[in-house]
Amino acid sequence: MAAYQTSPGTDVAVVINPLSNADPHPTPSRPVAAISLAELFERANLTGDLQAVERLLLERASSRSELIAAASTHTVRSGGKRLRAALALLSARLGNYSLPRVIHAAAAVELIQAASLVHDDLVDQASRRRGRVTVHARWDNDVALMVGDYFFALAAGEMALSPDPRIIGYYAQAVQTIVEGELSPVTVVEPSETALGQYYFKTSAKTASLFEAACKAGMAAGGGSEAQITALGRYGLDLGMAFQIIDDVLDFVGDEHVLGKPAGNDLRQGTITLPLIYAVARTGNPQLRTIVERGHPSDGEVAAAIAEVVAVGGVEAALAEARRYIGQAIGHLAEFPPSGAQRALIDVAHFVISRNA
Amino acid sequence: MAAYQTSPGTDVAVVINPLSNADPHPTPSRPVAAISLAELFERANLTGDLQAVERLLLERASSRSELIAAASTHTVRSGGKRLRAALALLSARLGNYSLPRVIHAAAAVELIQAASLVHDDLVDQASRRRGRVTVHARWDNDVALMVGDYFFALAAGEMALSPDPRIIGYYAQAVQTIVEGELSPVTVVEPSETALGQYYFKTSAKTASLFEAACKAGMAAGGGSEAQITALGRYGLDLGMAFQIIDDVLDFVGDEHVLGKPAGNDLRQGTITLPLIYAVARTGNPQLRTIVERGHPSDGEVAAAIAEVVAVGGVEAALAEARRYIGQAIGHLAEFPPSGAQRALIDVAHFVISRNA
Question: Are strands B128-129 and B132-133 parallel, antiparallel or unpaired?
Answer without folding.
Answer: antiparallel
